[in-house]
Specification:
The chain is of the alpha/beta class. The chain is built from 8 helices and 7 strands; from the N terminus they run βαβαβαβαβαβαααβ. A 7-stranded parallel sheet has the order 3-2-1-4-5-6-7, sandwiched between helices. α4 links the parallel β4 (about 90) and β5 (about 140-145). The chain is globular, with a radius of gyration of 17 Å.
Amino acid sequence: MERWKGRVALVTGASVGIGAAIARALVQHGMKVVGCARSVDKIEKLAAECQSAGYTGTLIPYKCDLSNEEEILSMFSAIKTLHQGVDVCINNAGLARAEPLLSGKTEGWRNMIDVNVLALSICTREAYQSMKERNIDDGHIININSMSGHRVVPQAAVHFYCASKFAVTALTEGIRQELREAKTHIRATCISPGLVETEFAFRLHNNDPEKAAATYESIRCLKGEDIASAITYVLSAPPHVQIGDIQLRPTEQVS
C-alpha cells in the first residue's frame, strides 16, 4: 500500500458498515479519503477517530445523495477543486428493498437501480475522466458487489436486488474491457461478499427487526473489516496483476 500514500480515494456509502471500515483502513494506510453519504454525521465522527488514532491519512466527509446525478457531479467537481481528482474509486453504496418481482413496488425497484447500478456507473465514469485528464495510468475502480451478483437465492424479497448485483458483475467486466481498449493500466475489480454483519438486513427488513437480527445470529458473519482487508489486498497487487473478483463468504454460509 506504500504507493497509495497521499493519493485520493472516493468511498461511497462511507457512513456505516463496509464503507466505514474501508474508509478507516485506507486512512490508516495514509490515503486521502473522500467519504460520501446522504448524512455525514457518522463520517465526521469517524474522521475524528482516525485523527486521534494518529493515522497518517485523512478522511474528508462529503454529503451526497447518490440517487441524484447533479449531486454526484457536484461532488466530483469539488474533489477536483480541493484535491485535484480521484485516483481510486470504491463504489460501495448499495441497498436492497423487499420488493418481489411479481408484487413489488416500482419505487423500490427504481431506488435499487438508481443507487446499485446508475450511481455506480456515474461515479465510475467521472472517476475515469478525472484520471484521464491528469494522466493517471495506475488508478483503480473497485465495485462492492455481492454473492447475489453470482447466484439467485430462493427468497422473493431479494430477487430484484440480485438482478441489480448481476448488473454490477457485468458492468465491472465491461469497465475492464473498455479500460483495455483505452490502452490504460487502470484496473477494475469486484469484491463479492456473502453475509456481512452491517445495518443492511435491518434496512431490508425495516418492519421486522427480529427477522433482521436473526439473519446475523444464524452463523458467524463476515465483518466490515474483512471486506476492507480484501480492498487493501487488491490495491496492493503489483501493477501487472489485475484481480477481477474476490468472492468471500462466512465459512458457515451455505449459499
